[in-house]
């Protein structure tokens, strides 16, 4: 059982990364490529408390074939929510992932012609609050809770938590916990996500990331 839990954590971490194929109910059709995003738009090193081993990535490169293949799994219209997809093909941007005590944290700053409708995304997450997933990675239960999001002037926000467990998993094996905060306005989307028991104030960190990105993006 413990080995299967570890396998779930690894596979769940993979499906919770950025993915490129949208669901019709909460994403717009593919649009022309967006303006580039400089690395300076990301939070500078040292902004995330106790973070180490920072690995950067390009958003276009992160929209990988291995991520897209998850879309072949039909989860009753809940695919985007279960896999945490807020970024689609055609987006340009930068991101990083860092290890922190208790888990890991990532940030991405993306530009796209038509960013996701975060209000619709939150409504979809409410409809997909508990879903059993059967795919190549095995069987898992995704439980999603939408939280009040931080208020940001002239922007839409989203905050939710996802718990991934095995069916019938006992309480002493808590599974994998993921938290996500997103902020969007015009053609810009900023997403902060942590996995595990980091204890980070992700709302505050996301607001700081949004404010920091404004200068480098000319907003």
Question: Can you put this structure into words, describing what you see?
Answer:
The structure is a single chain. This protein has 219 residues and is α+β, with helices and mostly antiparallel strands. The protein is 23% helix and 32% strand. Strands 1-2-3-8-7-6-5-4 form an 8-stranded antiparallel sheet, sandwiched between helices. β5 (138-147) and β6 form a beta hairpin. The chain starts with a helix and ends in a 5-residue tail after the last helix. 43% of the residues are buried.
Which features characterize this protein?
219 residues; alpha+beta; 8-stranded antiparallel sheet; 6 helices; 8 strands; 32% strand; globular; disordered N terminus
Short structural description:
With 219 residues, the protein is α+β, with helices and mostly antiparallel strands.
Mean pLDDT: 82
Number of helices: 6
**N-to-C terminal Cα separation, in Å?**
50 Å
What share of residues are in beta strands? 25-35%
SSE order? HEHHHEEHEEEEEH
Secondary-structure-based class equals alpha+beta
Radius of gyration: 16 Å
Uncertain runs with pLDDT below 50, 5 residues or more?
1-25, 65-71
Topology, please?
Layout: H1 2-15, E1 52-58, H2 59-62, H3 65-68, H4 79-83, E2 92-100, E3 103-111, H5 118-127, E4 130-135, E5 138-147, E6 156-165, E7 176-185, E8 188-196, H6 202-214
Antiparallel strand pairs: 1-2, 2-3, 3-8, 4-5, 5-6, 6-7, 7-8
